[in-house]
Structure to design on (310 residues):
């Protein structure tokens, strides 16, 4: 029997009035948001993600709820976080903050839609079948962090021509994806490099060897103390005091992830949403840091900059 056809009988057959039944409101969708980063240095990224949701008509706290999980650079926590969010039957699982996060999400569920952000090739990672037709339950974007390493090496050589040795700073989790690109670029220009790796604060202090995004401030501060010209992946490093950054607009990438999440909530399938690729890369130069380090930025390099921080 349908609710709208229901009639309450009072006093047997003496009287019958239809009862007004309020339509039941659909449950508020819940997003599971898991990041390998830390919340205190993701404020601007979350704001961009929420802007993307708002473009699709979703406002947190009004018609949408978000469950947050933060690994704070401890990647071994991600599988448990993914499993927890899956057990809560979230409507969409957003996995960001580094490639280990989407991998953990993909292993945790083959049914809940996943929106991911990666730095490399999601096809070779096994996240999707192809860029145009992802198939399965996952889609998102790549910021091509890994393939930009040769360009960053070239910019650093332009900054310090003839430098005898360049240090490469890698997190061992990402080294298999980034290092081959760097080594090939270095060989092509006969540039000697030294590679060091670390994944903890202790190793960072000893070797200055991590690119973990949860340690942006410490990484930049170390380079400044050692008076080392350094180039980084994203604008946030240059804003924090890094000398140069070259990469995609990571803030806009998070906005687009919000847009895709809203589209999934409206009924579209991840299998039908192409993996987004960046179309613009930005060079940011921090002149204040350059002056503090005694580094001269050439007019040519300045002319190439998309943003100069005074």
């Amino acid at each position: 029997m349908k609710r709208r056809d229901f009639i309450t009988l009072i006093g047997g057959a003496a009287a019958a009035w239809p009862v007004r039944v309020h339509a039941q409101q659909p449950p508020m969708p819940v997003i599971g948001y898991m990041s390998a980063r830390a919340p205190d240095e993701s404020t601007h990224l979350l704001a961009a993600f929420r802007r993307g949701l708002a473009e699709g008509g979703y406002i947190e706290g009004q018609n949408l709820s978000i469950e947050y999980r933060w690994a704070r650079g401890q990647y071994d926590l991600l599988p448990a976080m993914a499993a927890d969010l899956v057990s809560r039957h979230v409507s969409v699982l957003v996995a960001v903050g580094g490639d280990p996060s989407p991998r953990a999400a993909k292993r945790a569920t083959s049914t809940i839609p996943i929106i991911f952000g990666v730095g490399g090739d999601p096809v070779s990672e096994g996240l999707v079948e192809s860029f145009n037709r992802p198939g399965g339950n996952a889609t998102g974007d790549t910021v091509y962090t890994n393939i930009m390493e040769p360009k960053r090496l070239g910019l650093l050589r332009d900054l310090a021509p003839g430098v005898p040795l360049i240090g490469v700073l890698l997190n061992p989790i990402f080294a298999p994806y980034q290092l081959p690109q760097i080594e090939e670029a270095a060989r092509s220009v006969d540039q000697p490099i030294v590679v060091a790796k670390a994944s903890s604060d202790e190793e960072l202090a000893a070797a200055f060897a991590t690119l973990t995004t949860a340690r942006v401030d410490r990484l930049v501060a170390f380079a400044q103390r050692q008076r080392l010209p350094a180039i980084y992946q994203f604008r946030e490093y240059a804003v924090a005091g890094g000398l140069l950054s070259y990469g995609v607009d990571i803030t806009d990438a998070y906005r687009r992830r919000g847009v895709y999440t809203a589209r999934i909530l409206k009924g579209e399938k991840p299998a039908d949403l192409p993996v987004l690729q960046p179309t613009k890369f930005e060079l940011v130069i921090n002149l204040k840091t350059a002056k503090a380090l005694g580094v001269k930025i050439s007019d040519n390099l300045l002319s190439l900059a998309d943003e100069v921080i005074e």
